[in-house]
Structure formats: structure tokens, C-alpha cells
């Protein structure tokens, strides 16, 4: 697998996360809406930057799917937060994978920023959900 | 073959100097012959940079212990972080092909020869001051890992990057 393939996977992951936050937003409480919106916006920015990066590498960025399968039923605020954790953990994994697919320092930095942002956001969602511990030893693994 | 202690010392000295070739050191130490260590011309002279990441995580364990000892009310917050840091130390030792520490050996000094693991200053009165000191140490360990993540091998980059991300999360928990 090349760094472009890994970036395409990360981009596909970002598409899925953005779609998933639509589901999260439909279920969580009013109080949590601003946090959901901010998290979603962060991923929109990441998606656009990744697509741009791929274009700069002469690759055609992967498009979003029309629909994604949920990993479990999302029916209330609690399962909504669980999905939010799942989304961020998935994004962290995709970006962690990119790290092992390139020797380019700048791409490593980009991937690490994304991995770290998702790991921190996952921690925030676990805190909001009251999940303990709120951190994991190896984010993205 | 020497005592377990002297064997360990050989291994540690070897790992500090030879980095990824620690596996070969393990083999030679077990057969009681250190001879194969020196003739390898590709042995790098600089210490493996991953050792610095390991050292800082080992240092964090001492920081958590010192902070928890002085402020037991912080233990509930610190213990999960300490446990995960222990897992990270174990993973780093594996990546460095270092032997498992013996039960009698304490954390400090098992990774490199230099005993760099002096715990952070603990405030006798204010847990917030102690917490801030631990947080600073965690952030420093994250910066070390983040910097190494850019230059390390593709094989190690995911682990090192994960450790940098974990430090950012732990920092959040110490606020």
C-alpha cells in the first residue's frame, strides 16, 4: 500500500465520520449540539485538506458514499455519544495507519495532527458519556 | 552464564548502544558470550532515539507515584493514566527488544544507564500545583514522541504517533 492509498482510506474515513456526525447530532441532547457541530466542522476541514493534498499528488480524491452502515443501533443520546466515540476512534485508526505508510516528514506531521485531534475528541466524548477510563493507552490502535 | 542481574546489565548496556539490534544482544548474553556484539560494523554509535521516549514514560510513572503519594485525593484521576503509561512502557520495551524488567528492579534506570527519572516537584499543600507539574511532564513526553514520529522508521511511526496522541489525551485529563 502506498501513502496515496493510505490517504484515500483516511479520506474515506473522514467522509464516513462526517456522515456519522449527522446521526449523532440527531440523537444527542440540545446542550451537546454545539460540541457535535464543532467536531463535525473539524472533520470537514480535515476532509477538504486531505482531498486537496491528494489532488496535489495527482490523485483523484475518493468520493463520499451515499449511505453508511451504523455499527450498532443509535436511538438515544447515550448511543449517540457512543457512536461519536466510535467515529473518532475510526478516524484515529485511519490516520495512525497513514503514519506507517510514508517516510515523508510533512505527511507524518499531517497524519499525527489528525490522529491526535481525533484521539482528544474521542476522550472528550467519553468524558461526556461518563465512560471510564476516558483515555486509551494507544489511540488509533 | 552470569547472575540474572549481571546478564541484565549486559543487555541494558547493549541496548543503549545498539538500539534495534537488542535481539542479537539477548541471544549473545544468554549463551554467555558477549563476543558477537562488537564485531558488527553496522552498530550505530548514537543511542536509539526511542530510548528517550521510553525514559520519559518511565519518568512519568515516578511522577504519578510521587503525586499520588503526596495527594491521595488525586489517585482516582492518576491511576488510570498511570496504568496506561505502564502499558506504553511495556510496548516501548518490546519495540526496543529490551528484556522485561525483573520484579526486583524498579522502573528507573532500566532503559538507559543514566538515572534520569527524578520525579516532578510535588507541592506539599496544593494538589493543583502538583497536577500542573505532572501535566507539564506529560506534555514534554508528547512533544518528544511527536518530534520522533516525523523521523523514525515507518515500522515505528504508528506506535510513536500513538504515544504522542495519548499524551495529548492524558494532558486533557490532568487539567
Architecture overview:
The complex is a heterodimer of chains A (141) and B (175). By secondary structure, chain A is an all-alpha fold. In chain A, helix 1 runs antiparallel to helix 2. Chain B has 175 residues and is mainly alpha-helical. Chain B has 2 domains: 34 residues; 124 residues, Ferritin. Chain B is 62% helix and 0% strand. Chain B has 6 helices and no strands. At the A-B interface, helix 3 and helix 4 of A face helix 4, helix 5 and helix 6 of B.
Features:
heterodimer; A: mainly alpha; Ferritin; 4 helices; 0% strand; B: 175 residues; 2 domains; 62% helix; elongated; disordered N terminus
Please state roughly what percent of the residues of chain A sit in beta strands, choosing from under 5%, 5-15%, 15-25%, 25-35%, 35-45% or over 45%: under 5%
Largest sheet properties of chain A:
none
Rg result of chain B: 17 Å
Summarize model confidence as the mean pLDDT of chain B. Answer: 77
Q: What's this model, at a glance?
A:
The complex is a heterodimer of chains A (141) and B (175). Chain A is mainly α and 141 residues long.
Task: Present the secondary structure layout.
The complex is a heterodimer of chains A (141) and B (175).
Chain A: H1 3-27, H2 33-56, H3 77-99, H4 105-129
Helix pairs in contact in A: 1-2, 1-3, 3-4
Chain B: H1 4-18, H2 22-30, H3 50-70, H4 75-95, H5 127-151, H6 157-173
Helix pairs in contact in B: 1-2, 3-4, 3-5, 4-6, 5-6
Amino acid at each position: 500500500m502506498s501513502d496515496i492509498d493510505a490517504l484515500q482510506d483516511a479520506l474515506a474515513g473522514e467522509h464516513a465520520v462526517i456522515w456519522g456526525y449527522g446521526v449523532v447530532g440527531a440523537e444527542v441532547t440540545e446542550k451537546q449540539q454545539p460540541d457535535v457541530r464543532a467536531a463535525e466542522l473539524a472533520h470537514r476541514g480535515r476532509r477538504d485538506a486531505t482531498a486537496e493534498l491528494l489532488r496535489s499528488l495527482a490523485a483523484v480524491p475518493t468520493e463520499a458514499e451515499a449511505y453508511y452502515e451504523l455499527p450498532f443501533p443509535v436511538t438515544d443520546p447515550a448511543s449517540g455519544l457512543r457512536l461519536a466515540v466510535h467515529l473518532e476512534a475510526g478516524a484515529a485508526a485511519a490516520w495512525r495507519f497513514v503514519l506507517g505508510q510514508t517516510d515523508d516528514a510533512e505527511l507524518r506531521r499531517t497524519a499525527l495532527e489528525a490522529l491526535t485531534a481525533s484521539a482528544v475528541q474521542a476522550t472528550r466524548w467519553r468524558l461526556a458519556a461518563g465512560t471510564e477510563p476516558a483515555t486509551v493507552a494507544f489511540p488509533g490502535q | 552464564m552470569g547472575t540474572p542481574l549481571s546478564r541484565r546489565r549486559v543487555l541494558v548496556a547493549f541496548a543503549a548502544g545498539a538500539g534495534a539490534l537488542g535481539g542479537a544482544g539477548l541471544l549473545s548474553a544468554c549463551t554467555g558470550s558477549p563476543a558477537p556484539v562488537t564485531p558488527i560494523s553496522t552498530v550505530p554509535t548514537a543511542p536509539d532515539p526511542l530510548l528517550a521516549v521510553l525514559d520519559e514514560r518511565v519518568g512519568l510513572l515516578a511522577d504519578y507515584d510521587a503525586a499520588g503519594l503526596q495527594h491521595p485525593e488525586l489517585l482516582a484521576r492518576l491511576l488510570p493514566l498511570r496504568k496506561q503509561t505502564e502499558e506504553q512502557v511495556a510496548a516501548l520495551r518490546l519495540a526496543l527488544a529490551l528484556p522485561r524488567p525483573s520484579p526486583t528492579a524498579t522502573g528507573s534506570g532500566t532503559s538507559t544507564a543514566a538515572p534520569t527519572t527524578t520525579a516532578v516537584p510535588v507541592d506539599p499543600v496544593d494538589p493543583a500545583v502538583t497536577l500542573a507539574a505532572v501535566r507539564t511532564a506529560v506534555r514534554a513526553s508528547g512533544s518528544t514522541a511527536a518530534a520522533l514520529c516525523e523521523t523514525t522508521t515507518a515500522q515505528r511511526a504508528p506506535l510513536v504517533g500513538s504515544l504522542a496522541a495519548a499524551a495529548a489525551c492524558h494532558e486533557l485529563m490532568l487539567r
